[in-house]
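Record filed here:
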Amino acid sequence: MSLAIFDLDNTLIGGDSDHLWGEFLCDEGIIFDRQAFEKKNDYFYRQYELGSLDIYAWAEFSFEILAKYSIKELEHLHHKFMQLKIEPIILDKAQNCINNHKANGDTVLVITASNTFVTEPIVKRYGIDHLLATQPEMISGRYSGKILGIPCFQSGKIDNLMPWMRQNDETLEGSFFYSDSHNDIPLLELVDNAVAVNADEILITKAKKHGWQLVDWR
């Protein structure tokens, strides 16, 4: 029995959940200035692709809308978001890989830079119980608009993973990590079995150099 870790965006799903959430909010008329919002949404996504994302600046932008609505209102929006944006990009090959790990008795965990509000229902859709994600702070039952703890991004994924493993009596012996992004190279280098899924060009080069498995789930 091993630990099987999965990135979410562009790995388990055929797109980026946080960027799509922004698109969805615009489509629903939630955003007053759509042009300005989309420009900033695209900017942060591009910075992520380049590996130069300011995670705190992104969070200030991304979490602002969460602070404006009640949990009940947000959950109603997310239900529609799942139907319109996420269901069309669920990947069967990703689900099959998850199912195989579970059949082997492995512990399956998703670790993602995207926030828990957006990602938790997607992870549950795949039948996964364990999630580490960037955590939006909550005060008195509402989101504050700020990050709680260490963002789950780049080496921050390791910072979040290590205490989780201690709490859950898990180790990296025989472990797997599936990811599409060069932002995840620190954790890919740490596990026993690194798998590049739908990988970006930087990660493809790294995977070939280290003999990591390359797969396409799209």
In short: The first helix runs from residue 17 to 27. Strands lie at 3-6, 107-115, 130-139, 142-148, 176-179, 193-197, 213-215.
